[in-house]
Amino acid sequence: EPEVTQTPSHQVTQMGQEVILRCVPISNHLYFYWYRQILGQKVEFLVSFYNNEISEKSEIFDDQFSVERPDGSNFTLKIRSTKLEDSAMYFCAIGQGPNYEQYFGPGTRLTVT
Amino acid sequence: AQTVTQSQPEMSVQEAETVTLSCTYDTSENNYYLFWYKQPPSRQMILVIRQEAYKQQNATENRFSVNFQKAAKSFSLKISDSQLGDTAMYFCAFMKLDGNQFYFGTGTSLTVIP
Question: What's the rounded mean pLDDT across residues B15-37?
Answer without folding.
Answer: 96
